[in-house]
Amino acid sequence: MSKAEEVLSDIERKVERGELTPIIAGPVKGRILVEIVREIKPKHVLEIGTFVGYSAILRGKLENDSQLITIEIDPYVAEIARANVRKAELSAKIKVLVGDALKIISKLEGRFDLVFIDADKRQYLDYLRLIEDKLHKGSFIIADNAECAPNYLNYVRQSGKYKSKYILTSADALEVSVKL
Fold first, then answer.
1. Is the pLDDT of residue 110 over 70?
2. Rounded CA gap, 119 and 122, in Å?
3. 148-169 pLDDT, tens digit each
4. Is the Cβ–Cβ distance between 104 and 97 less than 8 Å?
5. Is 134 strand, coil or helix?
6. Pairwise CA distance, residues 30 & 142, whole Å
7. What is the mean pLDDT of the chain?
8. Which residue stretches of 17-159 are H helix?
9. Which residue, 7, 43, 85, 109, is the most exposed by fewest CB within 10 angstroms?
10. How far apart, in whole angstroms, are the C-alpha atoms of residue 97 and residue 50?
11. Domains of the chain: which residue ranges?
């Protein structure tokens, strides 16, 4: 078992024991994320909403030459995520930024192949609009708990800018959109 897999298993055990709030992507969504990452092989990944780093570590362990930037608003939780990333031996690939994603996104340079949104559901559409100029044709945007963001869902489905698919999981859903 790799260091990353050990850290992921440890986080899952903490959730099962009630030591962590069960708001991580978890194994079911994790498998979906892994399938997408394996399919598209993203080099530049942005994650909005880090929590303890579960999904960042999950993606970070897959592609050797990928870089992942993850944004967490809570400094305490971001430090836990950083510690988990270090334990997973992925510090060279995963950068944890602390602050409000609405302020940080505009300062980021480059384009992203994959964006994973799992933060304040009321701001999903705001995040996407800030990210749009950092996407290219074929970029994937995955929104967790998408059913809680109706304005976001309406936009990705009706704007003509994305091909979008709703994936129902056991507890909630992911909206997977591809930039046209």
1. yes
2. 9
3. 999 999 999 999 999 999 998 7
4. yes
5. helix
6. 12
7. 89
8. 26-40, 54-60, 75-87, 101-104, 124-131, 150-158
9. 109
10. 9
11. 3-162
Query: Smallest Cα–Cα separation from 99: which of 129, 126, 119?
Result: 119
Let me know: does 144 contact 116? Beta carbons within 8 Å.
Answer: yes
Q: Which residues contact 105 (CB under 8 A, 6 or more apart)?
A: 46, 48, 71, 127, 130, 131, 134
Cα dihedral across residues 32, 155, 146, 96: positive or negative: positive
Are residues 58 and 34 in contact, defined by beta-carbon separation less than 8 angstroms?
yes
Could you tell me the pTM of the whole model? Answer: 0.88
| Both tokens assigned to 171 | 């507890």
Which of 123, 128, 155 is CA-nearest to residue 142? 128
Whole-angstrom Cα distance, residue 121 to residue 150? 9
Dist. CA 116–CA 114, nearest whole Å: 7
**Strand 162-168 versus strand 173-179 pairing type:** antiparallel
CA proximity to 41, closest of 69, 56, 62: 62
d(C-alpha 53, C-alpha 49), whole Å: 9
Topology of domain 3-162, CATH: Rossmann fold (3.40.50)
